[in-house]
Amino acid sequence: MTDQAAAAPPEKLDAAVFKIAGVVVLGAVMSILDITVVSVALPTFQTEFNATYAQVAWTLTGYTLALATVIPLSGWAADRFGTKRLYMLALVLFTLGSTLCATASSIEQLVGYRVLQGLGGGMLMPLGMTIMTRAAGPKRIGRLMAVLGIPMLLGPIGGPILGGWLIEAASWHWIFLINVPIGAVALVYAFFALPKDSPAPSESFDFVGMLLLSPGLALFLFGVSSLPQEGTITAPKVWVTMLVGAIMMVTFVLYSFRPRHPLLDLRLFKNKRLTVSTIALFVFIIAFMGAGLLFPSYFLQVRGESTLHAGLLMAPQGIGAMVTMPIAGTLADRIPVGRTVPFAMALIALGFFTFTQVGVDTSYVLLCGSLFVMGLGMGGTMMPIMTSALRTLDHHDVARGSTLVNILQQIGGSIGTATMSVILTSQLNGSAAVPGVTNPKTGAPVTEAGLAIAHQQGAQTPPQLLPVIEHGLKFVADSFAHTFTVGFFLVLCTFIPIAFLPRKKEAAEVTAAGEGAEAPVMMH
Question: What is the largest CA-CA distance in the chain?
């Protein structure tokens, strides 16, 4: 009994774990920061590449789809080649992709390079969680989640501010070039800090499933994103790609029950608690991440703020999450999530409601206060739900369960980004054309909304058009409010699965393998 106690890992995270955590957090910061950095640059991309919001949103959608693609691949490759080598390769891919993004001369090139960047970034988080879980041990999962939540805190705070400052002080290219020195430092740090690899025989990888899921989802979302530009669902570019994508996804679901080691083990949905947690997280991500990425655009295009000021106005959300996320990580080890998450989600709904009422002169105090309240709720929602999902699984299933949860999380982000950008673009396309005014680059008619946005971003406008701009600006604000209303409705829908989260103390079944068992791999 004494020997077992001596062999047990300490309850607190020790210096050795924090040394490894430094590498993992640095890589995760780059990956997550890049999503929020780009969010503030979307209006800049619209102007630079003469594209619609739905088109430039693919710089985020393509990135998150790439993340979803490599999450399961990273687990298989880590077993086969070793986590240290693969983590360093991921850093190289991410840094290379960042460099190429800065050279893009069209929106298509930028999206393609973002996919490459996402393939590297997508391996950083799951590999980092694998490395950290093995180092920390199964009894410290809640505290581990709190540590890994640091990048999620820094992303909402630092990303928009850093992106806004770089665009304002230099150019949009630098939101990608900034990753080059950080990637170099992380690469050297990983070489010296991470333990040596010990590759082992790995399970077979489901390449068929991978070739069906992500491409199928990408085709379907591409069809949806093309709807505002084509104007009708009967356009071949819309319905053909949506149909092919839907067929591939349905085929994937049917196929997934056949392999012994499928890409996504849908059999795990027999576990009620995992199913409830996954559905709650999936709907929440679609609503919050999709609509949340439009917040900086509202400040830029409706309120006429600079990119730096728009980034600073987003900071309260990250600060709110910073307050509650460490607390939520600790409470997740002690209190059933069914008792804490509903209160956190209520805070999100309360703050989100303000944005359904936004106009051209909504109080900044009210908006920033609402973002802070939403941040408080966000910090108490995501990590506890993920922790609850993992705890319902035994040692054998926890790796496959974490893969399922994390892939669906990325897919939810992709769906949310594409859907909300399409809704906003469709709303803006309903604006009336300004008689006699055309786009100097394309010769196409300019709408009242387009003229108002250009005016707010610094374009010179004849005085006689100021009444048109005022009317157009109100139309743009109403378009954002309508889009936020859809997100708010989805947030309310999240309360349905949350009502079924466990409200009684649940055993941490992942520790059932015994003290001497290897810590479970949280991402595989």
Answer: 86
pLDDT over threshold 90, residue 511: no
Which one, of 326, 367, 334, 358, lies nearest residue 477 by Cα? 358
Q: What is the pTM of this model?
A: 0.83
Give the sign of the dihedral formed by CA 217, CA 237, CA 108, CA 168: negative
* Confidence category of residue 362, pLDDT binned at 50, 70, 90: very high
Residues 6+ apart with CB under 8 A from 340: 328, 331, 332, 380, 384
The values of phi and psi at residue 446, to 5°, are -100, 130
Q: Are 110 and 59 in contact, with CB atoms under 8 Å apart? A: yes
- Helix, strand, or coil here: 445? strand
**Angle, helix 466-498 to helix 337-355, in steps of 10 degrees:** 170
Query: Rounded to whole angstroms, how far apart are CA atoms 92 and 475?
Result: 45
What lies within 8 Å, CB to CB, of 2 at 6+ separation is none
How distant, in Å, are the alpha carbons of 2, 11, 139, 515 from that of 5? 5, 11, 13, 9
Q: What size, in residues, is the chain? A: 524
Q: How far apart are CA 267 and CA 503, in angstroms?
A: 24
The 10 Å CB-count burial string (b at 16+, else e) for 238-273 is bbebbebbeebbeebeebbeeeeebbbbeebeebeb
Task: Determine contact, residues 60/40, Cβ cutoff 8 Å.
Answer: no
- Assess whether pLDDT exceeds 50 at residue 509: no
pLDDT (tens digit per residue) in 217-248: 889 988 888 888 787 888 888 899 999 999 99
Token pair for 148: 């890994």
Going by C-alpha positions, the residue among 320, 317, 296, 295 that lies closest to residue 307 is 296
